[in-house]
Amino acid sequence: MKQLILVITIIAFLTGCSSSVKETIQANANTTLAIEGMTCETGCAKRIEQKITKMEGVKSCEVNFEKKLATVIYDDKKVVSTQFVDLVQGLNDSQYKVSNIKTEKINNSNSKSSSKGGDETGSVLSSPSFELPNIMEYLRNII
Question: For the segment 46-98, what is each residue's pLDDT rounded down to a tens digit?
């Protein structure tokens, strides 16, 4: 029994510790894309949003299903707007069509043009986060 508790404690400690360091993104461009072919908000719009957000150099992406618009804030030194078009039009056997691509530069004076409308300076800074599991809770659940 003691060995089992020891093994579980070690596994809980190892899986509970996480360190994620996100890259600093200097967002200096804002692109709006009109997307035709979306059939649902939770499937199509969220999938497009997630795929674009995962691209290197992208700070944020927000897809508005009702307006059929995607707004992407990114670093134009790492990614270009044509990559968003290629990605979206390549999803679901070319189900989506992109048009009306509008790009504008972001600097400190017009940084409020973000998809969230917040007071941003154009960069994302994050520090490593370390999380330890609550070992007593694990042991209490076992017993």
Answer: 999 999 999 999 999 999 999 999 999 999 889 998 999 999 999 888 889 99
CA proximity to 33, closest of 117, 90, 92, 99: 99
Q: Which residues pair with 62 in a beta bridge?
A: 71
Bridge partners for 35 per DSSP: 98
DSSP 8-class letter at 55: S
Alpha carbons 55 and 23: distance in angstroms, whole number: 12
Is-contact 3 73, C-beta < 8 A?
Answer: no
Cα 133 to Cα 99: distance, rounded to the nearest angstrom: 48
The hierarchical CATH code for the domain 25-124 is 3.30.70.100
pTM: 0.59
